[in-house]
Amino acid sequence: MNRLQSELQRLYLPAAGTEHGQSGLVDPQGRVRALVLELSRPADWDELSRIWRGVQDDLDLPAPAIAVSGLDGFQLWFSLLEPIAVAPAQAFLQALSTRYLADVAPKRLRLMPLADAAAAAQVQHVRCVPAEQEKTGYWSAFVTAELAPLFADTPWIDSQPGSDGQAGVLRGLLSISSPALAAAMRQLGLEGSVVPDAAPKIIPMAQRQPETDLGVAHLSARRFLQQVMNDPSVALALRIEAAKALLPYSDE
After folding, report:
1. Quick one: which of 107, 45, 105 has its CA closest to 76?
2. Sign of dihedral through CA atoms 5, 8, 11, 16?
3. How far is it, in rounded angstroms, from Cα 71 to Cα 151?
4. pLDDT at 176 over 90
5. What percent of the chain has pLDDT over 70?
6. Of all helices (H) and strands (E), which one includes residue 87?
7. CA dist 178 → 79, 175, 185, 230 (Å)
8. How far apart are CA 164 and CA 217, in angstroms?
9. 164: helix, coil or strand?
10. pLDDT at 172
11. How far apart (Å, rounded) are the C-alpha atoms in residues 5 and 8?
12. Would you say 89 and 184 are in contact if contact means Cβ atoms under 8 Å apart?
């Protein structure tokens, strides 16, 4: 494993030893550690930098990585310490978009991961960076905040970027802890949400301890999924995903 692979594993890939799903970013349970927000057509770093700065200044989160897509956009890559399911991932990214990019046309935004409406239990995600884009022959790449404005007209790298240089861009980045993510989501208006691992874990009745921290987190995760499922402003695919996660509790 080279330095770049080590950094990608540290920040974005599922736990070592698991079989990776589509694009290597999705674990067998459909959970992810990488949340990607892309702005394109055109790529505009001035606009996207509102989120890059806002999550640090307003939400006290670590800076996400910045990438050029190799096509026509900029991407922000958020790293999570613990994997989460699609519904809370999409809710977080949509809340960021609403707060910082309300004046940007939705068709210019791509929020990943996304539940695949055409295939049950499948999750769509972006390709891992760096990667060559078949449509253009250019490469996606991680870039620093200082250099990002230089790529506004050409959001790509002409040839494969060096792995050591890419590792260097990622080296100083940190992952978002579950408590920090939950606090940020509350600030974004997602009240009462404690980010679940995936579908909430089934705890036998005899083992449930409502007064413990575990019991509170379990109930909060369930309430969060119920909020997503019942919110008409959330995309239908996400509401379906939340409903699936709640199925084990339908008989309680």
Report:
1. 45
2. negative
3. 11
4. yes
5. 73
6. helix 86-100
7. 11, 10, 10, 24
8. 40
9. helix
10. 95
11. 5
12. no
The residues facing 38 across adjacent strands are: 75, 110
Specify the pairing of strand 65-68 against strand 123-124. unpaired
Q: What is the number of helices (H) and of strands (E) in the chain?
A: 7, 7
pLDDT digits (tens, 9 = 90+) for 220-236: 456 667 777 777 666 66
User: In this structure, what token pair is assigned to residue 10?
Assistant: 């540290």
Provide the 3-class DSSP secondary structure of residue 84. Answer: strand
| Cα–Cα distance for residue pair 32/92, rounded to 1 Å | 13
Task: State the angle between helix axes of 86-100 and 178-187 in degrees (0 to 180), rounded to the nearest 10.
Answer: 50
Is the predicted pLDDT of residue 180 greater than 50, yes or no? yes
**How far is the first Cα of the chain from the last one, in angstroms, to the nearest whole number?**
47
Per the CB < 8 A criterion, the answer to whether 131 and 29 are in contact is: no
Task: Round to whole Å and give the CA distance between 171 and 136.
Answer: 28
Place of tokens 């413990």: 212
